Amino acid sequence: MLPDSHGFTTTADPTPRRAIKCVAPARVNLLGEHTDYTGGLVLPMAIPFVTQATISPREDGLYTFTSELLSKTLTLDHTDRSPARGEWSDYPVGVLRKLQERGIEPQSFDLHITGNVPFAAGLSSSASMEVASAMAMLALATVLLTIEDIALLCQRAENEYVESPCGIMDQFVIVAAKAGHALLLDTRSLTYDHLPMNKGRLAETQIVVCNSMVKHSVATGEYGMRRIESEEGQAILVKKFGVCDLGDSTLQQLESAKSEMSDAAFRRCRHIISDNARVRQAKQAMFAGHPVAFGQLMLEGHASERDDFECSCEEIDFLVEIATTLPGCFGARLTGGGFGGSTVNLVERTQADAFATALKAAYKKRFDIAAEAYVCDAVDGAMLRNADVLQVER
Ligand code: GLA
Asked: Last residue of some domain: 139, 160, 193?
């Protein structure tokens, strides 16, 4: 048994058991939004929703994909290489394709998905499904990959098979998270640290996620547009200053290149560069155990997403604004891709339930929509949660 680069030791199980179950959590991002496709920093944590993938071997050369959550089922021949269908099954099928491209060909199987991750809430139900499926297929094939490899494989399934241009944050944290910690990930080098969330006064806080139940239909196309605009600004900074990407660019550099790029590219880059700086400051606030400082960074991050990145919406801005008026709230912001979805709030632990109730009531009154609120502590990612099945030592 050899430890991998993250200290996990692994052994392949030569005798696949029947009906292997693998689980993956959801995630919420605390800070560092839309920074993960331009080499920046992100600070997400895994939250206690779960996707469960149950895989059972077959002997007839077929792969089946079923889910009690989603109506359409799919049966594929093992030689099938058809493109995505626009169905939920694209996520696990995409994972299978990427495994096959690596030369990993799991024997025929039935894959059944269940779970409770809210859909279209900005909490990464798709990455959770990809990771749970990948773990189950790997366990069946008795192949072990590193954290990076699993996360990158799932991201490629989404980028290349589903054709959604996401970054690496969601898949990575869902694989690599650790209970009680946020994950600080450098998305250029894929190096990461688990940052404890219980230092000083932070031990007395909790994360409250509020699902607005709204997802504006522009979300998919707008995400791609923002990405293109950010990359346009990045290309100019790379050429002018020799930086690697926005991860090592400064606001001074951006300012001095302002006249060379569109206003949109300038503002997208200003959000990204300033959010990278906020993640660095958030790390210090976490070690200092300082919820006031952390909450302030969240509020600044939200303003930057709203005004510069323009990925918020009326409902989310309202939730953030009301949150800041409620007792015990240190900070609030939009989390995830945006254009609806969820807010993340840092709240005094003793006030968390009352905060959630008051926030939902104000939202109901304003929009006549029943928001959902989840009071969360950080949980383990899929690598640790499936340690027994994957034969990974913790
Ligand atoms: C979505 C994507 C991530 C990331 C966030 C924004 O969740 O899947 O890769 O870009 O949006 O931070």
From this structure: 193
Residue 366 Cα to ligand 1 middle (Å): 28
pLDDT digits (tens, 9 = 90+) for 297-328: 999 999 999 999 999 999 999 999 999 999 99
Catalytic residue annotation: 170
Does residue 381 sit within a domain? no
Q: Whose CA is nearest to atom 11 of ligand 1?
A: 337
Please give the pLDDT value at position 18. Answer: 78
Task: Indicate if 182 and 204 belong to the same structural domain.
Answer: no
Contact 96, 63 (CB under 8 A): yes
Q: Each residue of 374-389: pLDDT tens digit?
A: 999 999 999 999 998 8
Q: What does pTM read for this prediction?
A: 0.94
Contact call for residues 42 and 174 (beta carbons, < 8 A) = no
Same domain for 207 and 147 = no
Please report, for the domain that includes residue 275, its CATH number.
3.30.70.890
67 and 112 Cβ atoms separated by less than 8 Å: yes
